[in-house]
Amino acid sequence: MGEKLAVMFQSSRGVKQVIRETKMKKIAAIAALSASTLGLSTGMSFADYTLNILHINDWHSRIESNNKYESTCSAEEETKGECTGGAARLITAIAQERKKLEGQNVLLLSAGDNFQGSLFYITYKGKTEGEFLNQMEFDAMAVGNHEFDDGEAALAPFLDMIKFPVLGANVKANAQSRLGDRVKPSVVIEVGGQKIGVIGAVTNDTPELASPGPAVTIEDDVKLITSEVERLKGEGVNKIIAVTHIGYKRERDVIAKIPGIDVVVGGHSHSLLSNTDPKAEGPYPTMVDNPDGYKVPVVQAASYSKYLGEFKVVFDDNGVVKQASGDPIHLDKSITPDPAVLARIKELGAPIEALKNQEVAETTKAIDGSRENCRTRECEMGNLVSDAVLDRVKDQGVEIVITNGGGLRASIDQGTVTMGEVLNVLPFQNTVATFQISGKDLVAGLENGLSQIEDGAGRFPQVAGLKYSFDKSATANAGRVKSVEVMQGGAWTPINPDKDYLVATNNYVRQGGDGYKVFADKARNAYDYGPGLEQVVADYLDAHRPYTPKLDGRITEITAAAAAEPAQESAQKPAKPGEAPAPAEPAKPAETAPAATAEPAMPEPPAGSDDIATTPPAVPAEPAPASPAPAEPAKPAEAVPAEPAKPAESSHVIVAGDTYWDLAEKAYGDGAKWKTISDANKDYEPRRLPVGATLTIPAAN
């Protein structure tokens, strides 16, 4: 009887269990149906996938933090809260954002150019950057053009130590290359159960900008990205990110329009994109219409680790972006530098501290070496470097110097100048190069230098011993140069296309870098192994202490209408709005240059370098500026006043960072008059000024 009761009890318990499980399944089925119905009724799909992307670009070895001049921040500036970026802040910011996004889908990407820009790179050749990038735990990075500055000698060891994929679909290394197959075209990363394809690419003109070497070729970016997209799609990957070091304009106008690309994380142009900063180059993200009928978010995060980009992308179940939103995070005093990283930076910096702190000179005010100025117009740093080179080689008969604006990497603040600051400006270890070339071919070189001014390319020619005017509305390499003059007998004289001139530049430009192929092909008696450029500038600053930076009108931008009028190119450069035009004078600074014996620290050029001029010019290369030409106002038809008044209506070409307020302060001395400029330029929104457009600046009343 007891056994029967036990069996009946067990049987009853089993039946109840089955009933309970059946009820549970029904409830679950009803719940699932309700949820599905709810999803359909609200337009949401449970297949939507959200990905958070953190990113940087163009770090440029800013291991230490930056001051407002984008040079190394001092301890005093750090105490005052005036510093941004640096490895210690970047590591803190990345850790904080990952903690906020814990449990969500996150990728950390770099769009390249982690090399070059500080004494840490000069000393350790990528090992310091690699150490901190590994600590940040990137998911992938695109190779940038500056990763090739020292060829394979620096990049190969970097690839040995790095713990994440380095990408470049258009980078092709042959069997002799030390890179092997370690620069991958793409990588597939699984995040939150979804496969994300990441394709890398570098700018097509890397061979002109850097030194990949004979074993590495750079192929067409669009062709190779497109091919990689098709390969990934064939593997079932439907979410594809292009992480590219190509530049905002091309990334927006070309890369984002490649079918199959869903997101572009970019670099190379140092573009600040933002929804709140009036100086931004565009919105963050910039949404671009892809020909396949969907929108592609494009992002950049300025440069030098001043910002950490962060945005959220929502994909539908087909891998199409439904929405994207975010804003870069400014890594200012609100971000506390990681103390352990600061200690490591101090340890790594010990061997170079003495060199960094070596006092070179002093300057009466800041020397502007900003990217936006030195790549589009005459700038103070361009004048300093070019004048220093001319002073160094004038005894060899050199008359003219050309400096590529992209070779100038920082400004120098007012006061004491250290060797560390000079090396931040000139980090490439270039040497002074001299050569003979005809006036015709020299002008062709200037045409190349002006050919990509709209893109802020580094080839823009800063000069000494020469003055020129240009019209950027003309076709590139076909007449942008409107006048060129050289100093002859104490006066500016039009360049003679048939005459040979002795010219100096740096070895990179002389050998064809930055597109100056004419200098590589047409130069005669070339000598590329002169003294180091940074030492030449340091010695010049010391000889002219205290140094006062200046703009003297050696480069003039003119409008198409002005170019059609009778040539008056010997006039000074039109003043920037709000600045009284400086008197026109020879390109050399007014200070008397010291004799060559004032440079004992400099090694003499190797034998034979003094003999590059078979027929030295009959006049000195650096005449004393005894009788400066009287200044003329910007408008060619106006009379020449002895002391120029405020210009009549003038123009201004927009560069990254311009605002109507700043322009009004320069033009009228009062930013509150910005509406005067705005009213004269109704085609442009005050918070969305298009870089490269020309503004009308009404006369001050």
TrEMBL record:
The keyword Ion transport does not apply. Residues 563-652 are annotated as: Disordered. Residues 563-601, 634-650 have a biased composition (Low complexity). GO terms for biological process: nucleotide catabolic process. InterPro entries: 5'-Nucleotdase_C, 5'-Nucleotdase_C_sf, 5'-Nucleotdase_CS, 5_nucleotidase/apyrase, Calcineurin-like_PHP, LysM, LysM_dom_sf, Metallo-depent_PP-like. One of its GO terms (molecular function) is metal ion binding. The keyword rRNA-binding does not apply. Residues 650-697 form the LysM domain. Residues 617-633 have a biased composition (Pro residues). It comes from the Bacteria. Pfam families: 5_nucleotid_C, Metallophos. Gene3D superfamilies: 3.60.21.10, 5'-Nucleotidase, C-terminal domain (3.90.780.10), LysM domain (3.10.350.10). Keywords: Hydrolase, Metal-binding, Nucleotide-binding, Signal. Belongs to the 5'-nucleotidase family. This is 5'-nucleotidase domain-containing protein. It comes from Mesorhizobium prunaredense.
